[in-house]
# Entry
Amino acid sequence: MSEKFADYKNIWVYAEQRNGKLMNVALELIGEACRLAEEIGKGTEVCTLLVGNSIDDLAQECFDYGSNKVYMIQDPLLQRYTTDGYTKVIVDAVHKYKPSIVLFGATHIGRDLAPRVAARLDTGLTADCTHLNISVKHYIEYAEANTTLNTSTLDANDPDKGLKMTRPAFGGNLMATIVCKNTRPQMSTVRPGVMQKRDKVEGSKGELITVDYKLSADDIHIEILEVVKSTKELVSLIDADIICSGGRGLGDASGFELIKKFADKVGGVVGSSRAAVDAGWIDQSHQVGQTGTTVKPNIYFACGISGAIQHLAGMQTSDIIVAINRDPDAPIFEVADYGIVGDLYKVIPEIIANWDNAEALFDASSK
Amino acid sequence: MAFKIIVCAKQVPDTNEIRINPETGTLIRDGVPSILNNDDANALEEALRIKDKYDDVVVTVVSMGPPQATDMLFECVAMGADDAILISDRAVGGSDTWATSNAVVAGIKRYVKDNGEYDLIFAGRQAIDGDTAQVGPQIAEKLDIPQVTYVEEFKMDDDRKNITVKRKMEDGYELIKIQTPCMLTAIKELNEPRYMNMKGIFAEDKDIKTWNADDIDVDRTTVGLKASPTNVFRSFTPKPKGKGIIVEGDCNKDQATNLLIALKGKHII
Ligand SMILES: Cc1cc2nc3c(=O)[nH]c(=O)nc-3n(C[C@H](O)[C@H](O)[C@H](O)COP(=O)(O)OP(=O)(O)OC[C@H]3O[C@@H](n4cnc5c(N)ncnc54)[C@H](O)[C@@H]3O)c2cc1C
Ligand SMILES: Nc1ncnc2c1ncn2[C@@H]1O[C@H](COP(=O)(O)O)[C@@H](O)[C@H]1O
# Structure
């Protein structure tokens, strides 16, 4: 197998940019690619693929976050993302340079582009991954710490260096690790917010390669008439240290006023369950979960949220989970580090009122 | 000439109902109802709305799956689809998205042989069992037609050639113009799917066909478990996060202050 793929080396990150700005997930993927490159060893390079128009300055940013090489494709026809245009130039670049691994962010664009690229390359693609490994040894360590997998059938000395791509399935009820043994490159889309970016080292050096490509207007079969940004403020759930989430237990839309007050007090961001979104109480951009955003804050407050598996899928790796729910049997208490059984409309105002006093309360209690 | 729409639909287990057996760590699928995949219901609904508007529209649902998926196809017909095709064969079992799209594309090519070219294909954005959102774009790629995914609004000119859609983005939308034939993938914002109706249920002229691998003349080295470029290496359930502590207190205030004391004591705040 290794013979057959001897030509394929290096890890590529497709660095998605919109309007000349890199998406955060691109930097997270560069960080993850650095980690994977170390696992592969032997001079494996982390390469970033940049596609767009007038994006010269993004190359340095990729170097600063750990990329060794940047492959650059720029054309006025690539000013805006189109499936046709981007697929064509990316597929040609992959054919020419033969990366062993290509990672995409699982954004709305990444999930449109990657399947098309993979199909044209006739290779496998694993969607929406939340964990990646190379060596079996590291995979065993991951599995033992985080999963119920019986690792006795795995050999830590196994020389296999294929990419092991772990993702949730069946609404987060099951996790599957997928491999792509017989075709190259190995491709996956990776959920935003789960991988670690590296610290920025300004002025880092790297090699910039301008890629030859062929593209004409006839290759692109759609026309983008307009790009409309919603006027609502962007919710940065992914970067939040504290998230205060409300669910159907709020009873009505005005409940989010209390949640907002709570979030303002603790320096957090407002999240929600899908039930609250479906009820029309809050915008979908606040939704946490399988079909919303995956979050990993230091503290996640779940208020009036039952803890359905699809909600848990997006927040259960938070460092600390605090649940406030009237129902002592609510499944959210199964994953909560701290649970309060009670009416959120009575409990939250007390937390708000006493928040600034926590230090004194703690001192008094430890006397 | 009739305007022909193909809808790609999948039968999926209702993942809301799936539970984990705590002893074995495996999925309990017994008694879990199989349903028409959520987004696919939106895909079908949009096709049916076009059919409501014009007299000469034919809506055909195509699915690949085990024989019991005909139940789901009956449901599609009862909603108003004209006919349905199930691609079912052991040879296509265990397919990943690359192989699934090969089988569905072979089915669509057979459809074209029998009925002539299609005008429009709808799929769901993603299926709730695998959540990959890959099969739609991969079908489009192999049919060599353009695509728009995450479609939340659809409008077609009366020339039935020019289509304008809103494609949902994380922070807004794009307004996109595209021509038939093309592939559009539907999300739940697109519409509210209709219910089945009696007329649909008892319509006798509606046809549910089952095609096997020979019927669709598919290259057997491109379908099924063995042909799939991706394979499951291991599968498992996440480790249940240990149940934490319930913060007690005589009143809500005590609960709140005890929580804060605990968080402070552990240096969390
Ligand atoms: C394909 C699919 C994808 C999905 N994706 C997501 C997703 O991404 N994110 C998501 O969240 N859900 C998702 N869901 C929905 C999910 O299954 C649940 O329906 C949803 O999470 C429930 O939201 P909830 O906990 O707010 O509501 P409920 O389940 O109704 O829970 C409300 C809770 O509030 C408590 N409560 C009521 N009043 C009070 C009070 N005064 N004080 C304290 N507690 C109170 C109740 O005891 C109850 O536990 C998805 C479902 C499907 C089928
Ligand atoms: N077996 C199948 N038969 C027909 N259509 C399918 C099948 N699998 C997936 N699709 C279509 O592709 C979409 C995306 O599926 P997935 O890539 O599995 O998330 C679904 O919503 C369906 O429209």
Q: What stands out?
A: The mean pLDDT of chain A is 94. Residues B 8-10, 37, 39-40, 43, 62-65, 97, 100, 104, 123-124, 126-127, 130-136 surround adenosine monophosphate (ligand 2) (CB under 6 Å). Chain A touches chain B through 94 residues (CB under 8 Å).
